[in-house]
Design goal:
The protein has 982 residues and is an alpha+beta fold. The protein contains 39 helices and 18 strands. InterPro entries: Aha1, AHSA1-like_N, FN_type2_dom, FN_type2_sf, Kringle-like, Sel1-like, Sel1_AlgK, START-like_dom_sf.
């Protein structure tokens, strides 16, 4: 029912309305499938992202299947595109190991919003798990989405020109005004002659351009095409730069044609006219600025290659909002990017050439010839920008000084300086100051002030501030406690990428704290944090985390649970942190010890040179020297270092056999790095046949020594079911262990330091945050401080209920003392009602699961008294005996309890004899009082004390033999400084 109209053959004119086209609609259609495939390929190929785990790049676009077109239906443009895209990516981690994966986009179409586009990233089947996958899924997907968004923009801007066609009425009106009919047959470039064409169908102007010298279009339309950069690019299918004004320059065909518009005219009497000179520049001559004449003129006056952009501005630059010049010589005109100034192109506003530091731009391409410019900002905006830059500079200087000192007095002065930077509105400084006020670190503790700053930052989208507000609402610090609000803020913080928020959410989903318990959700959050922690671990296995229990330290002052000596702490911090302020001191110590022949020092010097730091330049040859020296003397650290050198080709050619050999030697001596790397080789099949059982074995051995990467690798295997039965619960526990070894674990030490200094409020808040992150030791320490009523932050009537909450969370993570404390709280009614039955449950759990002597003793007492359980003397004795067997410390109280129990049993026995009537008349409570059993125990204790004192006196009276004289050194004694082999 339709016939082809004259002009563009894609212009369809319906002869009449019919059942399928009742409105007699007109439309055009343009097929852009081939262009789209090239555009998508060009936008995706080579796309690269970098992160802490390494870098990833799309190396091949393997499939682009689909179609694309543009339709004009009844004067409305409709864009249709539907694609299935597949690509390959290659990732390289910090150690240089490469991983391969794929990207799949199953439905890129006009029906899907770009933000909802499904982009799937995965590793190839034969590849082991790597944090690079998460990097690609997070950052890579963002860039892919942006690139595809640019494709859609290009599609709509570069191929829709001329698609909205004029109506017949409009054309007739135009013809009447110009007194000339629009020519629809061949039009020569530069010609203004016209011919009448038969009026069959609707007379239209089109932009259907070909690479010939004639076009089915009007001169006016052609004039517009050649002065519009986007349309020139569409016409030539190559990059171009066009400044469509008189005197403007152009660069066509990837720089092979340079030119300048000498004259432009749209006079209706003379017709539209373009006069331009151009020169052909071969690619091999472009570097020398040579020209070869192929145009109407042999030279183009004033046109040199350096005057033109090296390439057209990218689409994302062209379509972004362009600032308008303020003042200068071009007030009100838009800036032109790029513009040429002092032989250099600028793609954004610049301060170059100005002494006052204000941003400016040119409003034509060549500032040197046109001198048209203006400011990009007002004086107030410029002043504000300068203040921001000054604040940033002060912040960076202050942070650098804070990180370079360990003196507390110096840090306090620097935090006062940081406070002034925060007052200038610097967001990061405000975050640090707010946390310092919250914890009382180097600034006076002020929770209300910290809350005020956090609220301001949270409104501006700071993930750290959102996480902090979640903590305040969760703990009820400065606000009424609200778990719902806490969950909202934690979620926002996690969406913003805050790792602490992810860790808190992981713990909450794992324990069902305020949310339904979900192992898979916990796994998602913990794995994300663990990826970051694992990527931050050096070969030393991570930081040394001290989990000091305040209850144990108070009850056992002589125990070794306290903080290690300061020098040893600094040594561990060095091992964990490259570039730490102790690195130089550690290097000096290792150097002295190595010169004295200490093999461990030699090996650790090799590590320092292998990893490099601010104080020790990375040097593979020197590292290899020390590793080999230590390995030759049988040192496992040196052997492991040599294995790493051969595994990754550091200073030597890659040799997997030698790497395996040295790792095996180190592992045989129990060195954790050797075990870990052996596991890695078996897991990846590097130099050996892939063997997940062997990998699991060596990862387990390394994890027993506490290596973070061993825990991480085991977690990955259990999470994916690689070599083992998949276990979400085991994977979460392992990932949680890794997460708790992150740098935030250092706050355990600072909290303990505050406790030792007597600053209970600061210690409590720090432990509270760590407790939110799921640290069991922090939860028990919070409960202990509250139990002792050592802090003034909470009201007195809140301390026991809050302590009960944290004892509950610590007990759920397997802490025996916390479980017993729960029984005590229910027994005595601390923070809850007295509930003997619940107390019995907690004591029984501690007895059966952790074999606690205290829990067994308490169960014996409750059986004896019949509290919350049926009275049973025999079961009471059984639990007392079990307590004595479980712990030697329980023997004395058990002895006293059994003496009392024996007396009670004897009395009951007498009651069963013939003297029953006599004895039954004796009421012990009435005779000796209601606390008669305590009196009896006191008497027995006195007797026992007398016996012990007597035995000690006898022991002291025995004369002791004199001490043996010191043994003279043997002939083969080792020289000083050389420890004996154990």
């Amino acid at each position: 029912m339709a016939k082809w109209g004259e002009g563009d053959p894609r212009w369809i004119v319906e002869e009449r309305a019919d059942a399928t086209n009742v409105n007699n609609w007109h439309w055009t259609e343009r097929d852009v499938t081939s262009w789209s495939q090239d555009a998508i390929n060009g936008l995706l190929l080579g796309l690269r992202v970098e992160g802490e785990a390494g870098s990833c790049e799309i190396t091949d676009v393997t499939n682009i299947d689909g179609e694309a077109s543009i339709n004009n239906r009844k004067g409305k443009l409709i864009y249709f595109y539907e694609w299935v895209v597949k690509a390959s990516w290659t990732g390289t981690n910090k150690m240089g190991i490469k991983y391969k994966g794929t990207v799949e986009i199953p439905n890129l179409s006009d029906e899907n919003d770009m933000d909802d586009l499904d982009i799937s990233v995965s590793l190839c089947k034969d590849q082991p798990s790597t944090p690079l996958t998460d990097l690609m899924r997070k950052e890579g997907v963002k860039k892919i989405r942006m690139a595809l968004g640019n494709y859609v923009k290009h599609l709509k801007t570069e191929f829709s020109q001329g698609m909205i066609l004029p109506t017949e009425k409009a054309l007739n009106k135009q013809n009447e005004e110009t007194q000339a009919k629009v020519q629809l047959d061949k039009t020569q470039i530069g010609s203004s002659t016209t011919k009448n064409a038969p009026n069959t169908g609707v007379k239209i102007s089109t932009v259907s351009l070909t690479m010939k010298d004639s076009f089915l279009t009007s001169p006016e339309e052609l004039y517009r095409v050649f002065l519009t950069q986007e349309m020139v690019q569409a016409f030539t299918h190559l990059a171009a730069f066009v400044d469509g004004c008189s005197g403007g320059k152009f660069r066509l065909l990837e720089g092979n044609v340079l030119g300048q518009f000498a004259e432009l005219s749209t006079d209706n009497n003379d017709g539209s006219k373009i006069v331009a000179g151009h020169a052909y520049v071969p690619k091999d001559a472009q570097a020398d600025h040579g020209t070869t004449d192929t145009g109407a003129e042999s030279e183009v006056e004033g046109v040199e290659q350096e005057d033109l952009p090296s390439q057209p501005p990218p689409p994302q630059e062209r379509h972004k909002e362009v600032p308008v010049a303020i003042g200068g010589t071009a007030h009100g005109e838009p800036c032109v990017f790029p513009f040429l100034f002092q032989d250099k192109e600028f793609s954004e506003c610049t301060t170059v050439g100005r002494g006052d530091g204000r941003l400016w731009c040119a409003t034509t391409y060549d500032y040197n010839s046109d001198k048209k410019w203006g400011f990009c900002e007002t004086e107030e905006q410029a002043e504000q920008r300068r203040l921001v830059e000054e604040a940033e500079e002060q912040y960076q200087d202050t942070i650098k000084m804070i990180n370079s000192t360990n003196r507390r007095s110096q840090k306090k002065e620097l935090y006062d300086r940081l406070l002034k930077v925060a007052e200038m509105g610097h967001a990061k400084a405000m975050e640090k100051v707010a946390y310092a006020m919250l914890f009382g670190d180097y600034l006076p503790q002020s929770i209300p002030q910290a809350k005020e700053i956090f609220e301001k930052l949270a409104l501006e989208g700071s993930p750290k501030a959102q996480t902090a507000l979640g903590f305040l609402y969760a703990a009820g610090l400065g606000v009424n406690s609200s778990q719902a609000k806490a969950l909202v803020y934690y979620t926002f913080g996690a969406l913003g990428g805050n790792l602490v928020a992810h860790m808190i959410l992981g713990y909450r989903y794992w324990g069902g704290v305020g949310v339904p318990q979900s192992c898979e959700s916990a796994l998602t959050h913990y794995r994300l944090v663990a990826n970051h922690v694992a990527s931050d671990v050096s070969l030393t296995g991570g930081s040394a985390v001290q989990r000091i229990r305040l209850l144990d330290e108070v009850e056992n002052p002589g125990s070794s649970s306290g903080m290690l000596e300061e020098d040893l702490i600094q040594y561990y911090q060095f091992l964990a942190e490259k570039g730490d302020v102790q690195a130089q001191r550690a290097y000096e110590y290792f150097n002295q010890a190595a010169n004295a022949g200490n093999t461990h020092a030699m090996a650790f010097l090799g590590k320092m040179y292998s990893e490099g730091s601010e104080y020790v330049a990375q040097n593979n040859d020197t590292a290899l020297h020390y590793f080999k020296k230590a390995a030759d003397l049988g040192n496992p650290v040196g052997q492991s270092g040599l294995g790493m050198a051969y595994l990754y080709g550091r200073g030597v050619p890659v040799n997997y056999d030698l790497a395996l050999k040295y790792f095996q030697k180190a592992a045989e001596q129990g060195w954790v790095d050797g075990q870990l790397q052996l596991g890695t080789m078996y897991y990846n099949g590097i130099g050996v046949k892939r063997d997940y059982k062997q990998a699991l074995k060596f990862f387990n051995l390394a994890s027993q020594a506490g290596h973070i990467l061993a825990f991480y690798n085991l977690a990955q295997m259990h999470a994916t079911g690689t070599g083992v039965m998949r276990s979400c619960h085991t994977a979460v526990e392992l990932f949680k262990n890794v997460c708790e070894r992150g740098r935030w674990s250092e706050r355990l030490m600072t909290a303990y330091g505050s406790f030792k200094e007597g600053d209970m409020d600061s210690a409590l808040v720090q432990y509270l945050l760590l407790a939110e992150q799921g640290y069991e030791v922090a939860q028990s320490n919070v409960a202990f401080i509250l139990d002792q009523k050592g802090s003034q932050i909470f009201n007195e009537n809140e301390t026991y209920p809050r302590a009960l909450l944290h004892w509950t969370r610590a007990a759920a993570q397997g802490y025996t003392v916390a479980r017993i404390k729960l029984g005590d709280y229910h027994f005595y009614g601390y923070g809850t009602d007295v509930d003997y039955e619940t107390a019995v449950i907690h004591y029984r759990l501690a007895s059966e699961q952790q074999h606690s002597a205290q829990a067994m003793f308490n169960l014996g007492y409750m059986h004896e008294k019949g509290l919350g359980i049926k009275q049973d003397i025999h079961l009471a004795k059984r639990f007392y005996d079990m307590a004595a067997e479980a712990s030697p410390d329980a023997q004395v109280p058990v002895f006293l309890a059994l003496c009392k129990l024996g007396l009670i049993y004897a009395l009951q026995y007498l009651q069963d004899l013939n003297l029953k009537e006599l004895v039954s008349q004796v009421d012990l409570d009435q005779l000796l009082g209601p606390e008669w059993d305590l009196y009896l125990m006191t008497v027995i204790a006195l007797l026992l004390g007398t016996v012990i004192a007597y035995r000690q006196r006898q022991h002291q009276a025995v004369p002791r033999a004199p001490a043996a004289p010191p043994r003279p050194p043997a002939q083969a004694e080792q020289p000083a400084g050389e420890p004996e082999e154990q």
